[in-house]
Amino acid sequence: VFARTGEQPGSRGISAFIVDADSPGLEIAERIDVMAPHPLATLHFRGCRVPKSQRIGATGEGFKIAMRTLDVFRTSVAAAALGFGRRALQEGLAQAKSRPMFGAHLADLPLAQAKLADMACKIDSAALLVYRAAWLRDQGKAITKEAAMAKLVATENAQQVIDSALQLFGGRGVRVGEVLESLYREIRPLRIYEGTTEIQQLIIGGALVAAAATGA
Ligand SMILES: Cc1cc2nc3c(=O)[nH]c(=O)nc-3n(C[C@H](O)[C@H](O)[C@H](O)COP(=O)(O)OP(=O)(O)OC[C@H]3O[C@@H](n4cnc5c(N)ncnc54)[C@H](O)[C@@H]3O)c2cc1C
Q: Are 49 and 3 in contact (CB under 8 A)?
């Protein structure tokens, strides 16, 4: 939980805490249903006492901790999106190879192959950005820009790959219960949480401008 503890104005007055789910005074006021299942809720804290020992870092460091955590989580959200995209390509390819079409199969048609090629390029370009962010982080490097690039490209590309795979399935793709129908819903929130695509653009653009100003 990130809470205002008020040592300083703005983001310097926020601290981070671990709050046990069964803490007295913590209540789940409302579960929030979204298009793909996700554990979301509105929480109420009334007289909920949290011992100092459950504070993460120093007081007022919460915002910094959240930002550092985002670098890791953005890379892992990107990796999750990559997995969704890979599954979609696998499903789309299998469908194209098995669907009879004009005396051959869908996969034999140039337009279907172009779609598959585009999907594979989107997946591999996302994969390379994810691997770079993870590798740099393992070297102990700052990865704010690289994590933002991985998150932006992997989530946006996965959405497009899933859409293309669904198109290869035709009407079957939108049937409730089909893998592609589920992936189509599952991928959508990943372009929003851990910072929307637009926020990633601001981070990347801002980093480029800052680096140009310092000549780095
Ligand atoms: C499934 C799911 C799980 C989530 N899990 C968590 C969680 O675990 N923890 C948590 O803290 N939050 C979580 N969130 C919240 C999530 O991080 C926010 O929804 C997200 O950051 C967007 O904020 P917002 O909803 O307030 O949209 P807004 O901030 O209102 O944004 C609306 C639109 O405006 C755009 N926008 C914002 N600023 C700019 C700008 N400067 N220039 C141009 N466009 C801009 C955004 O990109 C977006 O398109 C979750 C959300 C979802 C959907």
A: no
